[in-house]
Amino acid sequence: YASKRAPTSEQVALATEIAHQYISEHPAVEQAWNWEEAVLMYAMTELYRVTGDTQIRDYYKAWIDHHIEEGYAVLVSDGCPPALVATSLYEETGDESYADISREVLRYLDEDAQRTEQGGISHMGALNIVSLWVDSLFMFGMVLNRWGELNDDEKTINLMGEQLNIFATLLQSEN
Fold this sequence. Notes:
Blueprint: H1 10-25, H2 35-51, H3 54-70, H4 82-93, H5 96-112, H6 136-139, H7 141-151, H8 154-170
Helix pairs in contact: 1-2, 2-3, 2-4, 4-5, 4-7, 7-8
């Protein structure tokens, strides 16, 4: 992965500096289980893949470990992105507790999330408010992609393709 990037570039150095500054000011255990924090943590997983900087990895690992210990809920699409970080940790460590987070998101998508009559996964998930938001394709879509690729899971990859088609059709209509 890093060989296709420029680990010694000015951009990577700046990203690493920003990550270290954030880490020093924001304890991992104080970061919520939500999309905002998860997008940041996902970016850190990608930065770690380029730099190998264990301080960055230890930070997002502490965040996930804290939420495993304290508990978390996946009730809407915004609760899915932490599974991106968990999938990265599972890939690196083989620790099933990380895989369980991704499996919980997949279970939520399969069993709990409300759907449109066309089968689109509602952004508001289990809250009985059915609406499609294009950002859901990131919120749950990236998890489907990463988990599917890591585990050669054709069902998961196909679900993402189905959702892309449904979203593209419904979100392009005049109403």
